Amino acid sequence: MNATSTNTWSRNGYSVANNLKMYYEIYGEGKPLVLLHGGGSTIQTSFGRIIPALAQHRQVIGVELQAHGRSGDRDSEISFEQDADDVAALLQNLGIQKASVLGFSNGGTTALQLAIRHPVIVDKVIAASALCKRNGIPGGFWDFMKQATLNHMPQQYKDAYNEVALNPGDLQTMHDKCAKRMVDFKDISDEQLKSITAQTLVVIGDQDVMTPEHAVEMHRLIPGSRLAIIPGGHGAYMGEITTLQPGGNNESFFVPMIERFLDN
């Protein structure tokens, strides 16, 4: 399974960041844009449909986070803060002093933490379907997460993990760490969100997992941020793999929108 039609990366590999073996792929040339995938996902399952278009005008750096895809794991829980620190260390290893970041879902939460914890290296942030407050999702979600099992994980995610993982047998471990992180989710404080200095675009679907009201709250707390509410579900606006439908082409709207944001 690969959501992209061809492997178009100019280079890929591993780099040790904070004692974690992290996988990355680099596409295109120009100003750097880092892609941070959603929970349980890979670079391709989250961004495969939009990487070719984005790489026409900039250097795109896809990253796989702790326990995900081709990256390694630690004998510890995963956290958004640690993921942000790992991305910062990876960029330093790659010699990238400043980059914009597009994070989707859990990757969007990590992108916000990156802007909070490492503001010097972050140019602009696109927080796509990101969560920063527990009340941003209806209560039934939290009850579901407490009972989540591997059987609930979308088959597309399982297939993608098993295809590329260093140790495919660790799928259960990855699932359990992701589920626990969500069960234990702690709000990003108003003060932290107000401290973000990077120009930020908040993106959400009008039928997303998070509520539109949550996106509006983020927009109002992050200084000078912009807000886009797009028709569709969780990641449908960029062709996330679980949302793909025959004839669908929502990313043809999303890519020009974020390119305008990044270029202005």
UniProtKB/TrEMBL annotation:
Domain (AB hydrolase-1) ranges: 31-156
This protein's record includes keyword Hydrolase: yes
Hydrolase keyword on record: yes
Pfam families: Abhydrolase_1
Entry keywords, A to Z: Hydrolase
Domain of life: Bacteria
GO molecular function list: serine hydrolase activity
PANTHER family: VALACYCLOVIR HYDROLASE (PTHR46331:SF2)
Protein's name according to its UniProt entry: Alpha/beta hydrolase
Organism listed in the record: Flavihumibacter solisilvae
